[in-house]
Amino acid sequence: MRRGSLTIALALGLVTSACTGAAGNGSRSTAGASALPDVSEREIAAQVCGAVSHEVLLRTWRGVMPGRSGDIQIIPRYPNFVNGGLTHATPYAYTQDVPVVLYGPGYVRPGIYPRPITLADIAPTEGALLKFAFHAPDGTAQAQALLPRDARGVPRLLVTLVWDSAGWDVLNRWKGDWPYLRSLLPHAALFTHATVGSSPSNTPTGHSIIGTGAFPMHSGFVDEYLRVNGRIQKPNAAGPSFLVLPTLADLYDLHMHNRPLVGGLVSLSAHLMMMSHGSEWGGGDRDLAVTREAEFAPTAGAETDVWNLTPQMAPYYTFPSYVNSLPPVTAYTRTLDAADGTLDGAWRGHPFTELHNGFDTPARTPYQTTLIETVIEREGFGADEVPDLLFVNYKAIDTIGHLFSADSLEMSDAVRYQDAALKTLVEFLNRVVGAGRWAMVLTADHGTQRDPAVSGAFMIDINKLTSLLEETFDHDADGVPLIQKVRATEIWVNPTELADNGVSLEQVSEYLMGLTEQQTYKNRHTPAPAHAGDRVFAAAFPSSMLSGLPCLPEARAST
Ligand SMILES: [Zn+2]
Fold first, then answer.
1. How many A from CA of 532 to the centre of ligand 1?
2. Which residue among 76, 152, 258, 437 sits deepest, i.e. has the most Cβ atoms within 10 Å of its Cβ?
3. What are the residue boundaries of the structural domains of the chain, listed by start?
4. What Rg do the C-alpha atoms of the chain give, in angstroms?
């Protein structure tokens, strides 16, 4: 749509609710904005509180650190999502509900625990398991799920096991595909109402909450992107560097004079936020870490099968280089390949060559398990009385979720492989560390996006969103984009451009709230949406408003 017709649409009343003439907040300039409706924070607050549940607003607030976060929060109408791919970064239950399972005969009190908890409760609970008082800014130790303190010892090895993206929607969608985990549950503490607790629910935030017991509002890791020193950055390659709070492992290791082995066997540097800052945290030692950040490989593709540490992280961690001598992932693809009756170099019709030679398939899971077992044995995790901490992220469910969604048969395969890997790992730990000498917390950093054909979600095209905002609000023709970054739940805006164009965040928010499916669908090859006139967002508002929303007393109380 051309700018002219958008201006007409605005004038004709797509956003008439804003045109009440109520007093503005006085913070905006008016130059160049004469065609745009004036709107006050009070009007936006009324719309937000009327359209968004308390729980969703609470998660949104917990995910925002002023300065680092986007300037505008966007909350799609359930179950819509901003589509730059099948995102799992939402405030809604389908990506927020995650399993938390404590397993550890001799340490854990088996049972079903329906009390609502969040990922922030994991670190203090692990602290309690270690008999180490860890103060979590946003979590509390769930000691009711542990045996009485005096009736238990301390495990030689505590494993924090993340099935990346394996939220309850995935597990419930494929109920029959995790028989081994199900068989453990009678011997475990199962939290049935655990959530991520903050939005966006994505990989860096989820792992940071697990590690620190703090939401991004306190830890500072608010999204894949952060505004730091005025610049929008994607600092994942720096791992936990931008995490401003210590993790459980940071403090426990220090407390124990760095005698515990601390290790993270993961894929992305961001996963290590559940572990530690290594020696970057004053007094810490170089904990063991294995990642595979592809962007630092000389060429994309061929090098993605190489485990590494990024240059930013290498000084602070120890990399066990022998992991690159293990059999390649292709050693694990044969079973998947043969599952359809023929060895045709493909999995469910997808050639392995198009899936990083099998790395982006469930074959990655047993491949990772071999690596985990090798490191545990060679480094001696759990080999002596000093408790060791091992943090593991299995990535296949996440990768397959992004490619095929939670509802795909490919996901069914991924869950079955993950469950089989759990059996392998538990049996290995019982054999090598010894039954009754170790404990595990199994969880997910977030859930997975549903297939829109199943959920009925409308996909709000992220590129359209960006171009519509530029067309509508950026008229100063200086070549500097007004919109710095659009993400699934937030938008970063250039403050200078905002002022130069005489536009307020309230006006941009009001415009976003009026956007329809017709305006935001990816229409190159698809017919117009059936509900073309439906608005796509439940709310859009300046992030600074969160602390003053009348329907969010928690935020008001904290200011
Ligand atoms: Zn993740």
1. 32
2. 76
3. 3-87+457-558, 98-223+230-448
4. 24
Q: Which residues pair with 124 in a beta bridge?
A: none
C-alpha 147 to ligand 1 mean position (Å): 31
Residue 111 Cα to ligand 1 midpoint, Å, equals: 27
Residue 497 backbone dihedrals phi, psi, to 5 degrees:
-65, -35
Per-residue pLDDT reduced to its tens digit, 334-388 = 989 998 888 999 999 999 999 988 999 999 999 999 999 999 999 999 999 999 9
DSSP assignment, residue 242?
G
CA of 445 to the centre of ligand 1 (A): 5
Question: DSSP class of residue 56?
Answer: H
* Residue 85 Cα distances to 53, 312, 522, 524, angstroms: 25, 28, 12, 16
Ligand 1 centroid distance, CA of 165 (Å): 5
- Tell me: pLDDT of 321 over 70: yes
Distance in Å, CA 439 to ligand 1 centroid: 23
pTM over 0.85: yes
User: Which homologous superfamily is 98-223+230-448 in?
Assistant: Alkaline Phosphatase, subunit A (3.40.720.10)
| Strand residues in 116-193 grouped as ranges (E) | 117-118, 157-163, 188-191
265-283 burial: b if 16+ Cβ within 10 Å, else e: bbbbbbbbbbbbbbbbbee
